[in-house]
Amino acid sequence: MTSMSVTDELLANAERYAATFDKGDLPLPPAKRVAVLACMDARLNPYGILGLTEGDAHVIRNAGGVVTADELRSLAISQRLLGTVEIILIHHTDCGMLTFTDDGFKADIEREVGIKPPWSAEAFPDLDADVRQSIRRILDDPFIPTKTSVRGFVYDVQTGKLREIL
Amino acid sequence: MTSMSVTDELLANAERYAATFDKGDLPLPPAKRVAVLACMDARLNPYGILGLTEGDAHVIRNAGGVVTADELRSLAISQRLLGTVEIILIHHTDCGMLTFTDDGFKADIEREVGIKPPWSAEAFPDLDADVRQSIRRILDDPFIPTKTSVRGFVYDVQTGKLREIL
Question: How far is B125 from chain A (nearest CA, A)?
Answer without folding.
Answer: 16
